[in-house]
Write a structure and sequence with these properties.
The complex is a heterotrimer. Chain A is mostly helical. In chain A, about 70% of the residues lie in helices and about 0% in strands. Chain A has a single domain, classed as ABC transporter involved in vitamin B12 uptake, BtuC (Orthogonal Bundle). By secondary structure, chain B is an alpha/beta fold. In chain B, the strands form two sheets. Chain B has a six-stranded mixed β-sheet with strand order 6-7-8-3-9-10, sandwiched between helices. A four-stranded antiparallel β-sheet of chain B has the order 2-1-4-5, with helices on one face.
Chain lengths: ~350, ~260, ~290
């Protein structure tokens, strides 16, 4: 117990120092990005790059779930359904109309968001476990429609021949590291977006809903509106992930985004730490890389995911990075502490 | 016309009359206490005032406008905020964040502002955070703004709840047993603080069992028992009111003389 | 033809009711949706499979052994993963996620240990068909399954309504603290409830295996969700509600399979679930809790 406290104490001081000087922060982040950019150039194996690309993809999916589950407290186990909607929308637009990734991805994301909105409206007034089961049902219904509505989705045969993304005529491939850069660019954009939400009145409203929904209403927060918004945004992000997958693997079928995927995503979120952004990166890195590294244990993959859920909830429900931070809250620049007396 | 007028208020749960034809008024700048035994319906009145329950009968008028049967959000916007009998803070959030949630209803930037971090967003964030810090310093929690709400000692948690309620910029603050669990020193401090609140222009309605606090700062007192209003008046009057004493202590045992 | 579908539906429905009852019992006593119940049902079917097919000991032994082993599995799930959470005072959502994890563990261990391919199971009560009014045929299998299910559900009702432990269960369901103060060992009652849930799942698993004649490692997922729909429809926590819900789901599925095609037969249960959740989450016979402020 003492060791963790010491480590926490030191890292807290470190984090506080960084937070005080934005230059330090930017430099660190800049270095990190530079490092990420250089990895393919420095002769990393294509296997390694592929793993990093998958980690990036699952970071996106974990970030999407984290918004609705970690910050808003609504446990969803149907994210795979939104991925599927994003993926199928992209795939169909590309295969039938030849539209490029960036357009299909936008459409896929918006379509997923639309379904998030439509699903959210009726189900978000359900309490805890009922909502969770409803999301599960949603994921399964999406899969069944993909499987049976073959006029549209080609049924169990799936959709193949999805084209790779084109940027100004330049095709992104696995070999040229295109997917790697694309996915991590998406990760950075999504992270900035989520960070902006979390640090604003919206983020605080979502967390208030998570901690005590009734009191949140008594603080004037229109809770249904915020829950539906979080759910829709989470769906949009999951849809982005799905579209990316479709254009990268170039083949999808109804079983690509099944319940197993939803379970994997929630395992990442719980392992990394609900309600933390950095936890998503680490959780994805751990849970995606280990099956690749331990190929022989691949049959046990899902047993391990299940064990992670059970063990983490039992012994460290806040995940690796969750729970209370020893670092100080970052006050906006210009806020003065210790100046006045008397009530404002 | 009083700031807040409650007429003939009733709330029935099936056969149970939790609140039974209660009349109540509060003038601007007053400190009014509602006292009575447990289960008298006092918190139910607060719930009716804040839109948690709809009324079965009766009206609640704030500034001459009806606020009964409104949503909780609408009552907060109308100018009523509250604390809770068994403290309900946002436990996984920090002290400063709890108070910031209180500022939500008058934080005027929209989604696009916050995503793109416009200057409007930044300006308002600084303004509201400063206000939150000021409130916390005034209430004596200035050195704890970074702490997590759940880690605070009990007395500080009560103060944080009040700070959060103040942050909504209310006209009327409903305090539900603010002195519960406090020792005499802390109650004295609380007393002074509530007086300061009144001096700053807030109107206070308080449910309280600590008679010391109630008698010292209330302008008027209402007494409830079994959902009904059984007495109303100045502190001295209430202290000597037979009905009130009976409600708390029970009837005198004079029926059993042979 | 219609009668055929009705009997198919009723048979199926009774089995769903048997599984749904497990959800209801646990929800009633713990306010928890036991997501692992589906995998326990699959486990029960596999134990019966091992006893009946691998060891060739016959269906009676298969049933009995499965009941005991699966019941114990239910108890183990509670004691190892859920009771510690209750002791810690964890949020309800933690228990739900834990049961999801447990279902994954059980299901995938079944796959690893017993293989991922479907396995054959002998037909139960294989005495041919019974003919009523000339043209309507019910197989003895269906009749047997229906009767066994009814007997079991009656047995459960008797246990809950007429025995001492049943009384204890109902007391804990109403008010765990008060029950504890009355001297009831709440944890023992909870364990017993999980045993009943596991046992009834084992019987359901054996019956279904003997009906469709196939056992596969993720049979618990779909069946579990359908039974859950049944439980929610009837009002989760209410026993007779689960029975009625099960019958409705079974009949709907039977008719959907005939008129909409096989691919959509599973979807009907989900549709029912979503509709119930949207329109009346407490189901037909459930009760709603009021939140106190």
């Amino acid at each position: 117990m003492n060791k963790t406290n010491i480590i926490k104490g030191i890292s807290a001081k470190f984090i506080d120092k960084i937070n005080e000087k934005p230059i330090l922060r930017l430099t660190l982040i800049g270095l990190g990005i530079l490092w990420m950019i250089m990895i393919p150039r420095l002769g990393a194996s294509s296997f390694f790059i592929r793993v990093l690309t998958m980690i990036g993809l699952y970071t996106i999916l974990a970030l999407s779930l984290n918004l609705i589950t970690g910050y808003t407290g609504q446990v969803s186990i149907g994210q795979a359904g939104f991925c599927a909607i994003g993926a199928y929308t992209s795939a169909l637009l590309n295969v039938n109309f030849g539209l490029n990734y960036f357009i299909t991805s936008l459409c896929g994301a918006l379509m997923a968001g639309l379904f998030g909105f439509l699903l959210g409206l009726p189900t978000l007034r359900l309490s805890g476990p009922y909502l969770t089961i409803a999301t599960l049902g949603f994921g399964e219904i999406v899969r069944m429609i993909a499987l049976n509505f073959d006029k549209l989705t080609n049924g169990p045969l799936g959709i193949s021949g999805i084209q790779r993304p084109l940027i100004f005529g330049f095709q992104l491939t696995a070999l040229n590291g295109g997917f790697y850069y694309l996915v991590w660019a998406l990760v950075i954009l999504i992270t900035l977006f989520l960070y902006a939400i979390v640090r604003s009145k919206m983020g605080r409203a979502l967390m208030a809903i998570r901690d005590d929904e009734l009191v949140a209403t008594l603080m004037g927060i229109k809770t249904t509106r915020y829950k539906v918004a979080a759910f829709s945004i989470s769906a949009v992000i999951a849809g982005i992930g799905g579209s990316f997958y479709a254009h990268m693997i170039r083949y999808i079928d109804p079983n690509t985004f099944n319940f197993d995927i939803s379970i994997l995503i929630i395992s990442i979120v719980i392992l990394g730490g609900m309600g933390t952004i950095r936890g998503m990166f680490v959780g994805a890195a751990l849970l995606i890389s280990f099956p690749e590294i331990l190929r022989f244990a691949s049959a046990y993959r899902f047993v391990i995911y299940g064990l992670i859920l059970v063990i983490m909830i039992r012994f460290r429900p806040q995940g690796l990075f969750g729970g209370q931070s020893s670092a100080k809250y970052v006050l906006p620049k210009g806020v003065k502490v210790g100046a006045k007396d008397g009530i404002a | 016309m009083a700031l807040l007028e409650i007429t003939n208020l009733s709330k029935h749960f099936g056969g149970l009359k939790a609140v039974d034809s209660v009349d109540l008024y509060v003038e601007k700048g007053e400190i009014v206490s509602i006292i009575g035994p447990n289960g008298a319906g006092k918190t139910t009145v607060f719930n009716l005032l804040t839109g948690v329950y709809d009324v079965t009968e009766g009206e609640i008028m704030l500034n001459n406008k009806p606020i009964h049967n409104k949503t909780p959000q609408e009552t907060v916007i109308a100018g009523i905020s509250r604390t809770f009998q068994n403290i309900r803070l946002f436990r996984e959030m920090r002290v400063i964040e709890n108070v910031l949630v209180g500022t939500h209803i008058h934080t005027g930037y929209n989604f696009l502002d916050l995503v793109f971090r416009t200057s409007k967003y930044k300006r308002i964030e600084v303004e509201k955070t400063q206000k939150a810090v000021d409130i916390l310093e005034a209430i004596g929690l200035g050195d704890k703004i970074h702490d997590y709400a759940i880690n605070l000692p009990y007395g500080d948690q009560r103060r944080l709840e009040i700070a959060r309620a103040i942050a909504t910029n209310p006209e009327i603050i409903l305090l539900d047993e603010p002195a519960a669990g406090m020792n005499p020193n802390e109650s004295e401090e609380l007393l002074e603080f509530i007086k300061e609140l009144r001096d700053k222009g807030y109107t206070i309605i308080m449910i309280e069992h600590d008679m010391n606090v109630v008698m010292k700062i209330s302008d008027r007192i209402y007494v409830m028992d079994h959902g009904k209003r059984i007495a109303h008046g100045l502190p001295e009057e209430i202290a000597n009111n037979k009905l009130v004493i009976e409600a708390y202590l029970g009837k005198e045992e004079d029926d059993f003389d042979a | 033809m219609v009668f055929q579908q009705i009997f198919d539906g009723l048979t199926l429905g009774m089995v769903y009711a048997l599984i749904a009852v497990g959800y209801s019992l646990v929800f009633g006593i713990l306010r928890l949706i036991n997501f692992s119940h589906g995998s326990v049902y699959a486990f029960g079917a596999h134990i019966a499979l091992v006893v009946v097919v691998s060891m060739q000991w016959g269906v009676i032994w298969g049933l009995c052994i499965s009941i005991i082993v699966t019941g114990l599995l239910g108890v183990a799930i509670d004691k190892l993963s859920l009771e510690p959470l209750r002791k810690k005072g964890s949020k309800p959502i933690s228990a739900l996620i834990t049961t999801i994890g447990v279902s994954y563990i059980i299901q995938n261990l079944l796959m690893i240990l017993l293989g991922s391919q479907s396995k054959w199971f002998p037909k139960l009560f294989d005495y041919g068909r019974l003919h009523i009014f000339g043209r309507i045929g019910i197989s003895y299998t269906q009749l047997g399954i229906f009767l066994v299910s009814v007997i079991l559900l009656l047995f459960l009702t008797v246990v809950i309504q007429r025995t001492k432990i049943g009384l204890a269960m109902r007391a804990v369901e109403q008010n765990p603290k008060a029950a504890h103060l009355m001297g009831i060992d709440v944890n023992r009652v909870v364990s017993f409830t999980f045993f009943l849930g596991g046992a009834s799942a084992a019987i359901a698993g054996t019956l279904i295996s003997g009906y469709y004649q196939v056992v596969y490692f993720n049979m618990g997922f779909i069946a579990g969700l359908k039974a859950f729909s049944a439980a929610v429809l009837g009002g989760i926590g209410v026993l007779y509600g689960s029975v009625i819900g099960g019958l409705v789901v079974g009949l709907s599925e039977s008719f959907a399979a005939s008129y909409l095609g096989g691919g959509y037969r599973d979807a009907i249960a989900f549709l029912i679930l979503i509709i119930v959740l949207i329109l009346k989450p407490n189901g037909l016979f459930g009760k709603k809790a009021v939140e106190k402020v």
